[in-house]
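Exam revision sheet. Question 4 asks you to relate a sequence to its structure. Input first:
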Amino acid sequence: MKPINVGLLGIGTVGGGAFAVLSRNQEEIARRAGCAITMKMVADKELDKARRIVGKRALVTADAHEVVNSSDIDIVVELIGGTTAARELILEAIANGKHIVTANKALLAQHGNEIFAAAQKKDVMVAFEAAVGGGIPIIKSLREGLTANRIEWIAGIINGTSNFILSEMRDQGASFQDALKEAQRRGYAEADSTFDVEGIDAAHKLTIMAAIGFGIPMQFKAAYTEGISRLTQEDIRYAGELGYRIKLLGITKRKPQGIELRVHPALIPARRLIANVEGVMNAILVKGDAVGQTMYYGAGAGAEPTASAVVADLVDVARMLTADPEHRVPHLAFQPDRLSDTPILPMGEVETAYYLRMRVLDKPGVLADITRILADLRISIDAMVQKEPHEGEEQVDIIMLTHLTVEKNVNAAIAKIEKLPVVVGSVTRIRLEQLN
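Answer key, structure tokens:
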């Protein structure tokens, strides 16, 4: 089989890692792929930097269009990020009959339906293992390894920056702001960390996994997203005292009424393996009807872990180049004409358990008023703790854990509880997931 020529768009952290891994393991990769895979062209606006990395091993250009239009290139690897230029370049490459490897989760979550339809029309492949979970082979597992299963739910810690911040808050007693500064100092968080700490990055990844797991189109705009910036030391500590840890989770579940698609902080029992995933590591749980619960753990970012997934995709595409397009693994695991139109459930219809914390005046009858409101909205209490007031204070914290209930009922209960004259300030609400 003739050598496969690759054009790389962007030789930043991940691009540089992919170039290094491909060069270092070239012989091993050729043995696995059945042919040589060569990085033939590299496009990057920082020409001097690119030339220092590449040397004379590939042609370097500042114009990405040169790569996607080159007749010498078989596979285009897109690692420039963003959703504007990257979309234009990928669609141009597909129109030229080139296969695509990308790590761009935002692009796929928002424009994946358009990209996959274009690729289907041109009989080319789009591989995107590196878009979710860095080097963890979760996409391949969902598309191929678990293909015999009806996937019931997927839940994961899929943003390392947020996980590091929560670990610091719990282990070091740091505030959210101090933990964020430490993440930025170590290079785990960008100067503008909004995508990470507000759950947007996790929602991009969850959208992709839900599409593959349930055979639905990408529906990022329907995802519920809530970040960790409002979490306090009090809640981290109280959760620990109750036997839970707080993690930012991406959760998607198949329900009779539709698909849940949500990212938010959640209490998880401390005895669960996933509750003990710390620092910048990622972990994803998948529940299939036949296999049961499986867990995938590893580095969710970084140059070489992510490059591992990029190069694995190159090998996959190389292996499949000679296959009849109709017999390739579909982009979203299900045949394109068999995708489901199952709706995404509004967050108000989601059913889960809850942690509620409220500060109240230390007076008789307060609990009776609160529990009456909960009972009227069919919310059952699983556990309750009332903290002792500090000396000289007339206010106490009450923490309640509920049984499973519908979110809209909890929202209504919180609105009523906050109107009680004995309740001080807002009620803190964090969802609780048993993951069993």
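Marking note for examiners. Residues 105-122 form the longest helix (18 residues).
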